[in-house]
């Protein structure tokens, strides 16, 4: 049921396989927390839909999704000898995704219904005070790309957090002379 996840700054226990999407049975969570998580998802999803409509009406097309990692990493150079570190990162600095940009808007509100179950499980765990592993990020100058932890970041936004604990796994700097 649990798998150890090795990160450069430590080992974390994480639910594995099918149990990973079933947090409410792995961690006893009150029905009140589950109901609150359901409400938070509905609010976040509704906000994302309104924001999407607003972008389309303003002529921006569907440009309210996250940037892709490729877009942010274009014309950058990796920092040599970078050592991963654990730190708190402002949610507003996390602007791109490695592989899931189409699932969340610019403020990590969920854009699709298929995200609901996992999102609500994480939200219920957050509300219940269950420890969640740090998200995994890539730093590009003063901005960040999510490698792992999209749902946790989305929930953090929904509950009003301003920062999140993260492992910074890689760092890149913008090439100034190209």
How many angstroms separate the termini?
A: 49 Å
Count of helical stretches = 5
Query: What's the main sheet like?
Result: 7 strands, mixed
Give the helices and strands as they follow along the chain: EEHHEHEEEHEEHE
Q: How many E-type strands?
A: 9
pLDDT below 50 for ≥5 consecutive residues: which ranges? Answer: 1-5, 7-25
**Strand portion:** 25-35%
Helix vs. strand class: alpha/beta
Query: Could you tell me the radius of gyration in angstroms?
Result: 17 Å
Mean pLDDT across every amino acid position: 81
Q: In one word, what is the shape?
A: flat
Give the proportion of residues in helices: 25-40%
Q: How would you explain this protein's 3D organization?
A:
With 178 residues, the chain is of the alpha/beta class. 32% of the residues lie in helices and 29% in strands. The protein has five helices and nine strands. It has helices spanning 23-26, 31-57, 69-73, 116-127, 150-158; strands at 2-7, 10-15, 67-68, 76-78, 85-90, 94-97, 135-140, 143-148, 163-174. Strands 3, 4, 5, 6, 7, 8 and 9 form a seven-stranded mixed beta sheet that branches. Helix 2 crosses helix 4.
Features:
178 residues; alpha/beta; seven-stranded mixed β-sheet; 9 strands; disordered N terminus
What's the arrangement of secondary structure elements?
Blueprint: E1 2-7, E2 10-15, H1 23-26, H2 31-57, E3 67-68, H3 69-73, E4 76-78, E5 85-90, E6 94-97, H4 116-127, E7 135-140, E8 143-148, H5 150-158, E9 163-174
Parallel strand pairs: 3-6, 6-8, 7-9
Antiparallel strand pairs: 1-2, 4-9, 5-9, 7-8
Helix pairs in contact: 2-4, 4-5
């Amino acid at each position: 049921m649990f798998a150890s996840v090795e990160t450069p700054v430590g080992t974390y226990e994480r639910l594995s396989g099918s149990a990973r999407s079933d947090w409410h049975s792995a961690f006893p969570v009150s029905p009140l927390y589950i109901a609150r998580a359901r409400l938070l998802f509905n609010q976040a999803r509704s906000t994302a839909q309104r924001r999407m409509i607003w972008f389309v009406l303003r002529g921006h097309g569907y440009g309210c999704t996250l940037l892709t990692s490729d877009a942010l990493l274009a014309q950058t150079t990796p920092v040599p000898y970078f050592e991963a570190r654990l730190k708190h990162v402002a949610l507003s600095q996390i602007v791109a995704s490695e592989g899931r940009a189409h699932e969340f808007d610019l403020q990590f509100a969920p854009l699709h219904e298929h995200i609901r179950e996992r999102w609500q499980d994480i939200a219920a765990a957050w509300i219940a005070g269950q420890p969640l592993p740090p998200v995994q990020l890539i730093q590009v100058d003063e901005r960040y790309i999510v490698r792992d932890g999209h749902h946790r970041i989305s929930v953090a936004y929904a509950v009003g957090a301003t920062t999140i604990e993260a492992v910074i796994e890689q760092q890149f700097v913008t090439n100034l002379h190209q």
